[in-house]
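Our consortium's second objective concerns turning raw sequence data into structural hypotheses that experimental partners can test. To show how far this objective has progressed, the report includes one record in full. It was chosen at random from the queue rather than selected for favorable results. The single chain below, 73 residues long, was entered without modification.
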Amino acid sequence: MESPNLLTTCAAAFLAVFALLALLAVVMRLILVVFPARPAALPATDAAVYAAIASAVHTLYPGASVTKLEEIR
């Protein structure tokens, strides 16, 4: 009995991983359809984001302070 060659084994493993990832994508899509995210429930800004931006500004420009942040969409 002849053993499968390396190319066949690699192709089978690739197809198995692809099928598993496709299945997970479908499950994630179904979860998002069943439980949609409400825009009001999501925070517009986060205190950690403000702190990170203020820290970066202070590192680049010592003595400077952040007074206003706007989100551009």
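The partners drew two points from this record. The chain has a mean pLDDT of 86. The chain is about 60% helix and 0% strand. Both points have been shared with the crystallography group to help prioritize constructs.
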